[in-house]
Amino acid sequence: MTGMILRRLLQLPVILLVIYTITLTLSWAIPGNPLEKPEGRQPSPEVIEAMKRQYNLDSFPAFYWSYLSSATGIDYVGDTFSGQRERTREAAQAAGVAPPQDYVFDLGPSLQYNDWNVNEIIATSLPVSVVLGLTAIVIALIIGIGAGVIGAVKPNSFADLSTLIVALIGISMPSFVVGTVLLMLFAVVFPILPVGGWGTIGKIILPATTLSLPFAAYIARLTRMGMIDALSADYIRTARAKGLSEMKVLLKHALKNAFLPVLSYLGPATAYAMTGSFVIEKVFAIPGLGQHFVNGVLNKDLFLIMGVVLIFATMLVLFNLAVDVLYKWVDPRIS
Amino acid sequence: MLKLIAPFVILFAAIFAVIASDKPDPPADFTFINRGDVTTLDPQRMSWMQDLRVARLLFEPLVRLDVMTRDYEIVPGVAERWEVSEDFKEYTFHLREDAKWSNGEPVTAQQFVYAWRRALLPETAADYTALFQNIEGATEFFEWRSEQTRQYAVRARDMSADEKLVASQQLWEEALAYFDENVALKALDDRTLTMKLEASTPYWLDLCAFIVFAPVYEPLVSQYEQIDPDTGMVKLRLGWTKPPLLVGNGPFVLENWRFKRSLFLRANPEWWAKDTLDIDTIAIPSVEDANSQVLAFESGSVQWISDVNADYRIQMLADKRAFYDENREEYERLKAEGLDAFAIDAALPDDPRKNIHALAAFGTYWYNFNCLPTLADGRENPFHDARVRRAFAMCIDKQRICDDVMRIGNPVARNMFPPGAIAGYESPAGLKCISDATNEVEKQAIIDEAKALLGEAGYPDPAAMPRIELLFNTDGGHGIIAQQLAKDWEEFLGVRTFLAQKEIKVYKDDLKRHNFMTGRAGWFADYADPTTFLDLNRTGDGNNDRAYSSEVYDGLLDEAKIETDPEKRMKILQEAERLIMEEDLPLVPLFYYVNLYLFDPDEITGISLHPRLQQDIFNVDVIGDGKGREQVKQIWKKDAN
């Protein structure tokens, strides 16, 4: 187990380097000038030239290496050993200017949001996306497993069919429709929840529910199939013959085995719930990270695209690793 | 089972820990949704309307425009009085003694020089550098500095790190000395600022009121500036625009700024006119989705939406028109009394439909024609010929675009900017178009005239012309306008058309590189002078995407520059506009913008309905909150007094 974790962690830098190279090449190829504004007043050509020189935007290899070394912390380590950081700090102190921002992994400035750098943007929006995604997955598990178990106990009954229909709707309705309808219902018609924003439990309920529906539907189907399989297995008959209560049979014996496919689905689902919330962030005015994927590309904000992609790639790898570890822990038969 | 549940318990605990650690802002006196997310609060670097609007709360320039007057009267800001030379070339400002920064320090004339010099450094990347270049010697400084750093970057390659440190510092001192010597902007003492302009500029006070001309607190900002030893340029570091660091001199101070989430402002106790404020706190939440904005308003959590974009706004406006019809008599009576549109809405019977307000805006939506002889890919460009441009401009049913496509009551445009928007300026008549025809005969006459023009230009058979390409960007409803336009040209002229829809960055890039035949564009005024629009068509202007170049036109603009008689000057500018709107047509205006506000006129007052759309939100009073004067503020009434 330790070997596997170590091996996977060692793969991480290689995976990230490949992702970095591919993403940067593609983003560089997007037509358009990142320093130009989509509307209105444009900086003069002299200004654009000066900015390009400052940010290395005039040469792909220069940008590739400079960004790689600052984002991976090579610059930080290098400056520490050469004493450059100490000298800069002293110089700043001597000149009476504010000490420079010091990030180990410096992801650069945002070209779109002039007053923010990518580290700050990620630091404020990543926790939001993580909390929203996890809450959605928890809701999806509660709804999905509940519906799945009900369906499996009485297959093809009315309850089973209605959960099937709800699941279908959950999968096929786009989230901007579900989100807006929920908003209309619970914020305007029955004003019990706030319209949007972030920061209180009440503000999470609607977006997390909207985000959870497709996952809940899928989990319900997985659970139902797993449960039907499990309920016809020999050990369940044994359990029933032992005289165990039906509740115990279902939840303790059948569900435990039926849950395994759900667990393996949870890895990618959680990662997806955290990244795939672009539309929901927009509808519910949530300051999450998902929107920067889309806006970053539209604005050709190179630093933002690279920062967000690198962070998510790291998270995805770590998440899959966590699920694999969890899997082994739950079911020691799996090697 | 415990094994299964344990991870989820940990997850729940983590989620609640994150939420519990988050402290929401307290409720504000006034909450509004801005046009978009604030990108920067550095006055010299901003150009987005949402940034400018917030900066007007945090900073105060030398003078202000009173947005509650019809002609945007100039009123004192940091300067309590000023002198203007007769030829509008020399300006002297006297700063008030009680002008203070939010930390209690006095605002000085030197800080204005510092801020304006920042705007004139190429490395600051200020979008409005050109406005500062009205000052004598400023253009030369800007070019000299660009060249100076360019040469330094080459020299620096062979220097050691220590040499670079010394040399870059020396470079900066040279730049400062050059600025002091050559740029006619001087602080005579702490409270006197004087400047000499390149040419006669009667609208200079209007520019000085523009928030990019606001001062910044030098002791703070200079801490975030550093000379980069490699490039010799001043490198601006981030951080100072965020609370609690930000020091301003405006009516409000920024208490909290959470990225993509909200800004929270509180009245500045050090502001010299703080007694005029009727609210203490302002919240600006970030809500991007157009429908969610309206829902937020309807649920009561937001009091003003400054740009209503939900698709059903058309229905909202139609409802409002019906509401006016129901109350026609009362409406006419209130109008006759001299009430402005917002005050009339407040006085009409209570009805949810009176919340929506349509404002004529000082901005124009148009289509560019590429004026170069060949297109970017080497093909011949039919629009190089002014006759072709004129023919195409005539064959547009602008009224139909306003009535059937836009449907929010945009006025048809025949000029580069709305007539009547600038005091003392009379717009030319403009070119006729299909929608001017009152019957089929007149319509056919216009079409025949256009076809004759095409014939003269060498296209007797329009169907044989190269395919006409219309460039526009996705989103924003531009596609449907382009379709209507293409349909008009196909129907009236019989040409073939092609709709080229691109992502915004690609579209912008195509415009810049003149890689288009015709393409959508638009412009809002920056200041109250025709040149805010007319300069766009000057040869070599950074925003001249059309590559239009006319010696006559440039000559007229130059002539206006040296003319010191304001009346004669306006006449010359009128002739320049006539030239491009009736003869040369580098662009064809389609309609003037309309902006929609959503607020309850019984609850909110102090929002201006002026077409320039500038708002001083510190004018706002929430009626019934027990704070402030609780009086309805009116734009036209104030003029009469």
* Strand order in the sheet with the most strands of chain B: 10-11-12-1-13-18-14-17-15-16
From the structure provided, what is the oligomeric state, counting identical versus distinct chains? heterodimer
End-to-end gap of chain B = 79 Å
> Number of helical segments of chain A?
14
Q: What portion of the residues of chain A fall into strands of 2 or more residues?
A: under 5%
The SS-based structural class of chain B is: alpha+beta
State the largest interface: A-B, 78 and 82 residues
Radius of gyration of chain B: 27 Å
The helicity of chain A comes to over 70%
Give the helix proportion of chain B (percent range). 25-40%
How many strands of chain A? Answer: 0
Per the principal axes of the C-alpha atoms, what is the gross shape of chain A?
elongated
Which descriptor suits the 3D outline of chain B? globular
- The name of the CATH topology of the domain at 360-594 in chain B is Dipeptide-binding Protein, domain 3
Mean pLDDT of chain B: 92
Average pLDDT score of chain A: 86
**Proportion of residues in β-strands of chain B:** 15-25%
Low-confidence region ranges of chain B: none
Q: What CATH architecture label of the domain at 360-594 in chain B applies? A: Roll
